[in-house]
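Practice problem: predict the structure.
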Amino acid sequence: MRSYLDFEKPVAELEAKVEELRALSASGDGVAISDEVQRLEIKASEALTALYANLSPWQKTLVARHPQRPHFADYAKGLFEDFTPLAGDRKFGEDEAIIGGFARFRGEAVCVLGHEKGSSTETRIRHNFGMARPEGYRKAVRLMELADRFEVPMIALVDTAGAYPGIGAEERGQAEAIARSTDACLSLSAPNVAVIIGEGGSGGAIALATANKVLMLEHAIYSVISPEGAASILWRDTAKAQDAATNMKITAQDLLKFGIIDSIVKEPSGGAHRDPEAVIAGTGEAIADALSSLAGLSPGELRKARREKFLAIGRSL
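Answer:
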């Protein structure tokens, strides 16, 4: 069953009417209403297209968090062959908020890492809503070092509200683990590509997204802090989250303009959750293009390009 966001109410009403007419027609109790159904379908499609063409930053935040949006597991199934996940950081334990392993992408060996939020109550609890603990980032470092040893490209799929802020995580060195994961990204000798597929929150995202090429889905968000967190700090009022979202420049369109990301992956009308197969296929094409653009670069050139890319962020001539 499709879940609608609050701002999608006009579209929801039209689509509900279409389903009602279809059910009436199927039961044989109504007159020929195919023309009316077609008219309403066109109207609903036009309303959806118009709505998503002018989303505010806060509305994009809600779309990025949509529970039916495809997650890491969906991309892993749709894009990679022979995916073999590896568990544990060899220091403390396993963290299922970050899933990683080796696979084949269009016939080539790759290392795949990503946040998994889960799609049901049970899986969301198991994956801790995509909020990794230190052992998750240490597992990521372990896999990056393996990828580097075998000169295998790395692909990261980022979707997290941020690293887990619990006491246990802090006691086990959360900040240090994030810093080492970020450093491991920067030090890779092989090319790496990161895709923000939903939320790219705080250091929890940058720990995997410090890549040669950073891609972002059209309605994803990427920020140092959530709009609610920023509002609570700046105004001591989480109700001002919409204002914070607007002023923080967290959308793909803003971040492309600032040079923080390299390209935007278009989403289907109505967001990735309306047509997961299409957005997964589009993401695959974008990753292939990014890897192709990095082919032929030496390890030193890859590291230099990656370093200069991030040092250039925020500079003004």
